[in-house]
Amino acid sequence: MDFNNTIKKTIDIANECGIVEEEYAQTQLELIIQKAIELQVHMDNMYWSERCNLLSHGKVCSKKEVNENYRRLKYALGAVFIPLIILSAQLNLDPAECFDLAIDDLEKCDIEG
User: Fold this and answer.
1) Does pTM top 0.90 for this prediction?
2) Beta strands of the chain (E only): which ranges?
3) Are 103 and 113 spatial neighbours (Cβ–Cβ below 8 Å)?
4) Coil, strand, or helix at residue 91?
5) Using CB atoms within 10 A of its CB, is residue 2 exposed (0-12), middle (13-18) or buried (19+)?
6) Could you report the per-residue pLDDT of 2-15, keeping only the tens digit for each?
7) What is the pLDDT of residues 63-105, one digit of tens each?
8) What's the CA gap between 43 and 102, in Å, rounded?
9) Are 52 and 61 in contact, with CB atoms under 8 Å apart?
10) C-alpha distances in angstroms, 95 versus 44, 59, 68, 71?
11) Tens-place pLDDT, residues 19-32
């Protein structure tokens, strides 16, 4: 699925759930923070499971556990995107345009914006 279709699908689902109203923008902002913290936890878990496996020659976490940690990490990263997309819709902003503006700064190596 391409990013534009993902954005549209996310906003459509949010509309169906009735959460695209601007009055819920603060809730989405809080959710973004919560999801970013969860992402950090999964990143830490992935780092330590890989590190422990290296030190123990693969005896700490099974391949299945490592794969599950990767799946959780990917989910957590995706879960950060959802409230960002919904927040942009609540503020009547085009998420793709917001993304493009950030890419413009990235191209200038200006990651602070």
Assistant:
1) no
2) none
3) no
4) coil
5) exposed
6) 888 999 999 999 99
7) 787 788 888 889 999 999 999 999 999 999 999 899 888 888 8
8) 23
9) yes
10) 29, 44, 30, 25
11) 888 888 999 999 99
